């Protein structure tokens, strides 16, 4: 199937690449890697997203190429990457029905909504799958493309710390370095170029830290009021959930982020064998075994009660 997709990349002449809203490093990296390759092949190619990528990624050469989803580009092929559900890409059924729709993902909850589906839950990042496709088709991988793939892998493995990291992950990373990627350049821009107001927000968020279920569940939250107080937005919260998970004895960390009044984005991270994707499904979401998310539409105190109740099994 990967070879078939590689042939499509070679043979077709117009493409749209999309990924999930509030795109993370994997969504952005895998999208721009395909964009870069197709541009180098002289194809007509666009990349879109339902939401503007966070400022964290504005150092990327093609950052400004990412447009809002419009469901209007006249292309032959649409490629969705790193999106467990079609609606999270912002695509409409009537838009894709007359196009070849390719779905490339590694979320185990992905139902396979494309005409062609490559879904590999064991892949550390979608960037690893894109690498395989490019290698299968002997497609060109420039330094720029390699940097996008490295970004994808670096961020979705937590800098190679998560359990999804495998020997193959390191092997691909090594090949990307041979193509000119400088690890310090990518990591410093991602992890060491934060804005001061982000830390002001973080101090407020950490002050909400509460432990439940004998210290096995840690929960933090950020409200619209906190955003206003610190002149920040959702962009400034990337990685906040990991502070909750990193506490000794905690098995699950949760961040509730109020995106609209009484509408909270849920980010969930776990350690070991706790599959949080099964919990995320209860909240209009999904994801991976150790990293998932969803949405809850309740006032804050009720939202917290629902989350705490959903993880009652930690006491078993």
Mind explaining what this structure looks like?
With 316 residues, the chain is α/β, with parallel strands linked by helices. It folds into two domains: 2-191, inorganic pyrophosphatase (n-terminal core) (Alpha-Beta Complex), CATH 3.90.1640.10; 196-315, Roll (Diaminopimelate Epimerase, Chain A, domain 1). The protein is built from twelve helices and twelve strands. The protein has helices at residues 2-11, 25-40, 93-96, 126-136, 143-156, 167-178, 183-191, 196-206, 224-230, 241-245, 277-280, 300-310; strands at 14-19, 44-49, 66-68, 77-81, 100-105, 116-119, 210-212, 217-222, 252-260, 263-270, 286-287, 291-296. Strands 3-2-1-4-5-6 form a six-stranded parallel beta sheet, covered by helices on one side. Strand 4 (77-81), helix 3 and strand 5 (100-105) form a beta-alpha-beta unit. Helix 5 packs antiparallel against helix 6 (167-178) and helix 8 (196-206) packs antiparallel against helix 9. The chain is globular and about 55 Å long. The chain starts with a helix and ends in a 6-residue tail after the last helix. 46% of the residues are buried. The mean pLDDT is 95.
